[in-house]
Every structure is written in C-alpha cells, then in structure tokens.
Design brief:
By secondary structure, the chain is mostly helical. The protein has a domain of 69 residues. It is built from 6 helices and no strands.
C-alpha cells in the first residue's frame, strides 16, 4: 500500500529524530534505504531562522567564555621592562644598502 505524502514526511522526520542508521530504520518501516533517502530529499528538515541560529551561537559563546574564566590558570605575568624588546638602531648607511638577492638570477646565469 503506497504511503501518503504526510506519512512519507512523518517517516523522514522520525528518521531525523532517531539515532538509527538509514538501512536499519528503513527495514523497520518496511521500505528500502533508497526509498528513505528519496523521502528525505523530498521532505527536507526545516531550516532554523536567523534568530534561532543567533541565539544558539550566543549561548555557545557564553558557555565557552564561562569555561575560559573558570580555568585554573593564573593571569600571565607582564614582561619586566628590562626584558621587553627594544628598538634596534639602524644607521642611514644600513638603510640604503640593498639586501642580497636570493634565488635564481636569469640575467647572470644566461649571459
């Protein structure tokens, strides 16, 4: 007996809510796994709204931030001034000196 559109949609939704593989689920419902896959394509899962997705993401971020704050690690120490990186003085002559070229030089190697 053929299934109605509503029955096919219900079976597709039931599989999505289950933790059973497609082959076993289809066998338990008297259909082939191929038929189940076809019904899943014909009756896709509802897409959540942007607001629903944003709410889930914000909750996840809040939980992650709380987990980070609860970590037992101390705040990293600041670097003492004597160990902080110091600017390097470069003479005007060094600024004008070009760096040596690396790699293959077509002009020099094919003259």
């Amino acid at each position: 007996m053929p299934h109605t559109r509503e029955e096919r949609a219900a079976i597709a939704a039931a599989w999505r809510a289950s933790a059973i593989d497609q082959f076993t689920f289809a066998k338990n419902h008297g259909i082939s796994a191929r038929t189940l896959r076809l019904w899943l394509q014909q009756h896709p899962a509802p897409t959540p709204s942007v607001e629903e997705v944003r709410k889930v993401v914000e909750e996840a971020i809040g939980k992650l931030q709380a987990m980070l704050e609860a970590l037992p690690f101390p705040t990293p120490p600041t670097c003492p001034p004597q160990l902080a990186p110091q600017p390097v003085a470069v003479s005007p002559q060094e600024k004008e000196t070009p760096l040596p070229r690396r790699g293959f030089n077509f002009d020099a190697d094919y003259e």
